[in-house]
Amino acid sequence: MARGVAGVLRRAYTSRVRFLLSTRNLHSFGETGCRSLANPQFDEPTTSRFASDNPIRAQRQWNDYRFGGFGFGKVRSFSSTVDTNGENDEKAESDCEEGLGSESEDYDEESMVNELGEVDESLINDSAVSEIGENVTESSEAARALNARYQDPVELYRELRQSEVRAKLQSSELDTLSEIFSYFAQSSWGANQALAIYIGRSFFPTAVSKFRDFFVSKCKIEVVQDLVRVGATDEAVKFLFPVFVEFCIEEFTDEIKRFKSVVDSADLTKPATWFPFARAMKRKIVYHCGPTNSGKTYNALQRFMEAKNGLYCSPLRLLAMEVFDKVNALGIYCSLLTGQEKKHVPFANHVSCTVEMVSTDELYEVAVVDEIQMMADPSRGHAWTKALLGLKADEVHLCGDPSVLEIVRKMCADIGDELVEEHYERFKPLVVEGKTLLGDLKNVKSGDCVVAFSRREIFEVKMAIEKHTKHRCCVIYGALPPETRRHQANLFNEEGNEYDVLVASDAVGMGLNLNIRRVVFYSLNKYNGDKNVPVPASQVKQIAGRAGRRGSRYPDGLATTLHLEDLTYLIECLQQPFDEVKKVGLFPFFEQLELFAAKVPDMAFSKLLDHFGKHCRLDGSYFLCRHDHVKKVANMLEKVEGLSLEDRFNFCFAPVNVRNPKAMYHLYRFASTYSQDMPVNVAMGMPKSSARNDTELLDLESRHQVLSMYLWLSNQFEEKNFPFVEKVEAMATNIAELLGESLTKANWKMETKEEILKGQKKEDRGYDRPTSIIKRKAENFGVKESPKKVVS
Ligand SMILES: Nc1ncnc2c1ncn2[C@@H]1O[C@H](COP(=O)(O)OP(=O)(O)OP(=O)(O)O)[C@@H](O)[C@H]1O
Ligand SMILES: [Mg+2]
Fold it and tell me: Does the pTM exceed 0.95?
């Protein structure tokens, strides 16, 4: 290989190593493989490679190794590198920016050498010294001798390269060498380190195997014998690694270049720079920070309404509708924009939208981003992050709990926006009712909202309450269309009707204003797709915060549980301070994925997302949002030919419940009709009457989901492809009404899964209490638990 190219790669490597090190704790790579690069992968010296009687010298050797050793010249050491207590994180952070800069083409090795000068020995603290001391004593004699003999890996590599004599090895030596290299190929430490020179994980074993052939064919007998004495150990791997690096840089130029270009095209660092117009503005960010029911949204909306134009971004369609209604009722024209519907109000300068619909092209005087703590949501967080970074508004009002306050401060400081903090207290404290419902749903009262975490439980509770008390129940859960949820909420809010109890899932948790006197947790466990786990404290707080809203019929809020044994957990959750969020979500735009796709041609879209996840690079304050459901849809649509990457991207992000075969089937049909350039229709009949049992109710929910999906897609594609919007809207309205009617009439008994499968019903078994996984001792509260009652 030409020396020039080798030099460039070496510099790139040195710079890369420096980049990775300078950004430790700050940058992380995607989900699996590369993520480990973010961790302190360049471990503290634990092997004899850096063994020295003088710990300071050992530390220096280590610094050389970490910061461009291997004969590439020294690179500046950071104080954080010798801080084993992690106290220098801030320093490392400021170095991070420089580290990134150093990745640029004009990296000047010469000036780096000058800049480095000597390592400041005072920076080496006692703990580092003692750690090294211990490691030295631990390292094996053989490894120590090996390292003492071959101190310069570059020199050793040169010797090997120039050697023309093949050493005669005994079969036992060959066997041990084979074990050593096989251990090397499986070393995750080695694979991690190799990423720094753009040797990808999948290529790593091949690279090691080629290196083994090279080593065996070139190595002097003395080196082999020394190495064989060390055996298949970490010490051997760490001894060989720098020689391996030299070998790779010369042997695998093309592979390294290719991998580097893939990694570079998956660069999600510095997301603030994605929005140059917002950066060019001097924005004022106002953070309305406080617990639930403290007036955050109310106050932000006051500014929104005063402004000559404004945007309100909601976490839920239902809340976007609530604001749309409220603002219009106050005489300020406001349009509505959600994935499924666009209601344009003539002369409106204000828009209420769902956060995923945020446009970073329009200019606003005031933008409100509600529930900003959702930036940390594993799946949807990126929409909030984008809104905060990208909105073109003179004032951006954020409403949320304190969990993201610190990270918002940091983001504002990074982007140079002014931050004004408004802190709020809850209007009235939330009171925990120690008595609980004593396990008996007969104890529900007017104004109660019973919260359950599965659709099935919601109906069991509703049926039990309606069977055994005089109360009637409204229901709200995620699978219901927002129109139906709104209808149910209104029915519950209205005075003078018999619907005075609400049974709801966590869909009721965010921002909504309902006439709830008391929130009763039916259970505090939730199925997470794998097993039942306790509901996170932040969610418990949000949900409990629905009780006792200012201006409602019940301004004093109560929260309790059905069972006494769950009460401690409720109290713990409500008392817990908000956890500070360290990272917020990001997701690539289509254009970024397109760029990445060009580097890995012919890769299926589902694999592409995974591949991106593995290679993408992120700053330390960000994580890549989960995209499991997108992958499932992508897999299903793999068979549909003739879709462009952008078409696939759009279809894969359609709101579909991937566990609903009917909805998935229709999505498949939509995509295949579209791929044939034919107008997409909904081939689905309309039910004539409301549901008479749960199966029919589920069917109505599924049908509505299919229609909702069509409407969403119609907003992503051209009208000629989805021309039946009006018809579909009418069908969706009909189904939402049928759902509303069905819920009002619902009095059937829920079938168990087994019954549904077997198609046979068991004896009427009444109402079974849920089993709690948060068993607590009732005595903790000085309250005696009454015998558990079962409504029968
Ligand atoms: N200054 C006020 N005057 C009259 N009503 C108010 C005032 N502030 C808040 N409210 C009312 O109090 C209720 C709760 O306020 P808001 O929705 O703003 O709370 P929040 O802090 O955003 O709660 P959450 O965190 O649950 O979203 C709303 O019904 C709102 O209209
Ligand atoms: Mg709010």
Answer: no
**What string of H, E and C letters represents the secondary structure of 484-509?**
HHHHHHHHHHCCCCCEEEEEECHHHC
Q: How far apart are CA 450 and CA 460, in angstroms?
A: 11
Architecture of domain 274-423: 3-Layer(aba) Sandwich (3.40)
CA of 496 to the centre of ligand 1 (A): 24
- In this prediction, residue 752 has a pLDDT band, given cuts at 50, 70 and 90, of low
Higher pLDDT, 742 or 551: 742
Burial class (CB in 10 A: 0-12, 13-18, 19+), 168: exposed
Residue 698 makes CB contacts below 8 A (sequence gap 6+) with none
Rounded (5°) CA angle 309-312-316: 160
Q: What is the pLDDT averaged over residues 663-682?
A: 95
CA of 366 to the centre of ligand 1 (A): 19
Domain boundaries defined on the chain: 136-265, 274-423, 430-575
The pLDDT value recorded for residue 778 is 36
Q: Are 544 and 430 in contact (CB under 8 A)?
A: yes
Q: Which of 550, 552, 578 to mutate to test the pocket of ligand 1 (most atoms within 8 A of CB)?
A: 550
Residues with CB under 6 Å of ligand 1 are: 290, 292-298, 399, 511, 513, 545, 549-551
Q: Tell me the per-residue pLDDT of 262-299, one tens digit each, with 9 for 90 and over.
A: 777 778 888 998 899 999 999 999 999 999 999 999 99
Instruction: Report the alpha-carbon distance of residue 305 to residue 300 in Å, rounded.
Output: 9
Give pLDDT, residue 27. Answer: 36
Name the token pair of 518: 């008391």
Supply the residue whose CA is at minimum distance from atom 14 of ligand 1.
293
Q: Which atom of ligand 1 is nearest to the CA of 545?
A: 26
Rounded to whole angstroms, how far apart are CA atoms 715 and 722? 9
| Ligand 1 pocket: which of 286, 287, 292, 297 to mutate (most atoms within 8 A of CB) | 297
Equal CATH topology for 274-423 and 430-575 = yes
* Domain boundaries 430-575, corresponding CATH code: 3.40.50.300
Question: Which has more confidence, 743 or 143?
Answer: 743
- Could you tell me if 278 and 391 are in contact, meaning their C-beta atoms sit under 8 angstroms apart? yes
How much distance in Å is there from the Cα of 370 to the middle of ligand 1? 12
397: Cβ contacts below 8 Å, ≥ 6 apart: 285, 286, 288, 300, 303, 304, 366, 367, 368, 369
Please tell me the distance from the alpha carbon of residue 491 to that of residue 497, in angstroms, as a whole number: 8
Higher pLDDT, 574 or 153: 574
Give strand ranges (E) for 229-338: 284-289, 310-314, 334-337
ipTM value > 0.90: yes
Under the banding of pLDDT at 50, 70 and 90, the label for residue 8 is very low
For residue 605, pLDDT beyond 50: yes
Amino acid 315 reads: P
Q: Which atom of ligand 1 is nearest to the CA of 295?
A: 18
Asked if the model's pLDDT at residue 414 lies above 90, the reply is yes
- Rounded to whole angstroms, how far apart are CA atoms 316 and 312? 12
Mean pLDDT of the chain: 78
**CA proximity to 107, closest of 179, 238, 8, 187:** 8
